[in-house]
Structures are given as C-alpha cells and as structure tokens.
Amino acid sequence: MSLTTALALAVASATSGAPIVDIDLAGKAPEEIPGYQPGGSGAERRDPSGEFLYSVSLPQGTYRVTLTLGDKRSAGRTTVKAESRRLFLRDVATRRGQLVTRTFLVDVRDARLPRQPAGAPRFGQAVLLDERDLASFSWDDKLTLEFLGQPRVAAIHIEPADAPRLFLAGDSTVADQYTEPFTSWGQMLPAMLDDHLVVANHAKSGATMKSFIAQLRFSKMLTQMRAGDWLFIQFGHNDQKSEWPMTYLDPELTYPAYLRSYIAEARRRGVHPVLVTSPERRNFDDSGKIKDTLGAYAAAVRKVAADENVPLIDLNRDSIAIMQALGPDVSPQAFADNGKDRTHNNNYGAWLFAAAIARQVAEKIPEIAPYVVLRNFDPSHPPLPGAVPIAASIPLDEGKPEGS
C-alpha cells in the first residue's frame, strides 16, 4: 500500500470513528511501514540506535495512542514524544522478549478558524503563524510520534478519543519548543498525566496576553473549548517589558484586568480557569539567593486567583525553591545552552518545573488530581540531572526562542 493510500484511509477512518492506525511492527523494519521517517538531520550525531519518526495524516482532534513496546530479539529503552516534542513516555525499559503496553492521549490541531457570519468583524481565517510554527509538527495536518533512545516498538494503534482537555496559554516557558536544546514545562506535563486528560498546548514563544489575542491564538482555543475543559494561564515574562509599548501590561492595573478577561471567557464556556505564576529567571545574588525579577506579576496573579476564586499553581515559588536547592553551580544544568540561557529550560529543567506543577495540581485541583501520576516531588529536594534521563529529540537547532 502506498503512503498516499495509507494517509487517505487514515482520514476516512478518523471521520467514521474506526481505528485509524493498527500496525504490527513485529518482525518488520520500521522503514517498511507507511508514515515512517528515519532519524533525519540529527541522526548522524548519534549512534545508530534505531530512532525514528512516525506520522499519519489526521484532522484536528484528540487521539488515543496505544503502543506495544518490546522486541523478541533484544532489550530496549524507549522514550516517546509526540507532535512538537511533547513527552509522553520516558525511558521505558523492556527485556529481551518482553512486551509492555502504554496508552496516552495526543491533541492534534490545525490553524484554521471558523468562518465569521456575514457582517461580523473580520479577523482572518487562521491563527497567525511564523516560520518556526510552519516548520513544526504542531500546526500541520498529521499526528507525529518520535521514538527515541533505544526504541523497540512492536505495534502502534491510534484511534479517536473523547476526553477533557487541559489547554495551556502562555509564553516560551510554557510553549512547545520545536527543537533542542530548549524545552518548556508544557512539553513535559503530558508524561505526568494518565490517559484520561489530554494537554492542548497553544502557548507561544514571545507571547504576551495582548499578542496572544492579536495573533488569534486565544480565539483558536476558544473555538475548541467545551464545558468541562481546563485552561491554565501563565504570562508575565514578556508582559513586563515596558520597552515593548504595544504589549506592555503594568502589574497593578492592566495585567490583572487581562487575567480577569481570560478567566471570564473561559467561565462563559463552562471551562475551568487555573492561574499559574511565572517561573523565575536564574539570577543569583552574592549570597546564593535568586533575585526577584517577576515578583510584582506573581503577586498580581495570586491576588486575582484569590479574588476570583480560581485555583492557583505557584510555579514562581517552586521554581525559586528548585533553583536555590540546586545552587549556582548545579542549576545551570537545568537551563538551555549549557546554562548560558537564564530563562529557558532544557529537558531536565523543564521536567523539574512540570513535576512541581503536577504536584500542585494533585494537591489543589481535586477534579483532575486522580489523573496525575507523578505526585511525590519536593521542590526543595529536586533530583540531580543524572537521575532524570530524557532522550534528546532528533532535530537540533541552537536558535533561541523569542522572549526572555
């Protein structure tokens, strides 16, 4: 069967609700499977461990992915990411001849917006995307899986699913970073939830609360939201930039007003808003304490959460605890560009921040607490880098995300 035929059948299956992909890889080389893509431009920098991408054309929606991992002939250690490097399975070990099954939910989207009624204001037919967006797996017409480490994949099964969605609105510390070495907590969070809740990460590098609206990203989220979904809101890093006059929000008046507007839009649709304070930047003073660069914005989020009776995830507090626990010497290993970047995490640092969020979700939001699979994380005693192995993604790009 040709790749074109396989993709056409996939779209037809998605429409009918039947299984979209049901592939037995046992005894087959991955390259024999339609949708297989080899390691790509980053393959030459690694040992030939069999890393590969698998893509299938799908309309936007929620999909349940069931993987059978293992191989009769050899042991493996499989890490799985989906779309733009969202982590779902980390370092799953299988012995020779052992098979294990893992299931997770993936959000797939496109940039299109519903057509406006006649006479309504015209804002455009799609989310405003830049070159990085267009080159990514986040806004295309397919679901992409990335198999890393020493992957041993016996079967892939994909089908439509119906589950509550956890929407993420935010900046580069939340967004799907498309290439190594940059990673956000939003990309690590899916690995800390079970298959009853799907993360829909719409955050954007460089975003402010104003630009998120102007680029129609918030509009896209609102068109997809349904009653019972969740909206996590985390801005501040770029909103505080007074040198960006068109998008600057002061922490006393306009920033709280925009937070309340986002909350109101969610509640009008029966969606549950959650406020997240921004992670602090990694700047130590001479006494080994983290300097405050976002305190006024974190305080504003805490006040709005209390006033509006909205759950609060205090990542600002926990990020400071994590960095101070690691100290000035070890904490750079949690940030991109070998620690030269003081704002954007690498895989390890993003995992720490996401673990802090998962712990607070389990403590503070009882409706979705049962879906959290990682709970016993202590920000004041974070694991060291060697204790959290996370395979790097295949693409490699040193380009820094927008924002700081």
TrEMBL record:
<feature type="domain" description="SGNH hydrolase-type esterase">
    <location>
        <begin position="170"/>
        <end position="320"/>
    </location>
</feature>
<dbReference type="InterPro" id="IPR036514">
    <property type="entry name" value="SGNH_hydro_sf"/>
</dbReference>
<keyword id="KW-0378">Hydrolase</keyword>
<dbReference type="InterPro" id="IPR037459">
    <property type="entry name" value="RhgT-like"/>
</dbReference>
<dbReference type="InterPro" id="IPR008979">
    <property type="entry name" value="Galactose-bd-like_sf"/>
</dbReference>
<protein>
    <submittedName>
        <fullName>Rhamnogalacturonan acetylesterase</fullName>
    </submittedName>
</protein>
<dbReference type="InterPro" id="IPR013830">
    <property type="entry name" value="SGNH_hydro"/>
</dbReference>
<dbReference type="Pfam" id="PF13472">
    <property type="entry name" value="Lipase_GDSL_2"/>
</dbReference>
<comment type="similarity">
    <text>Belongs to the 'GDSL' lipolytic enzyme family.</text>
</comment>
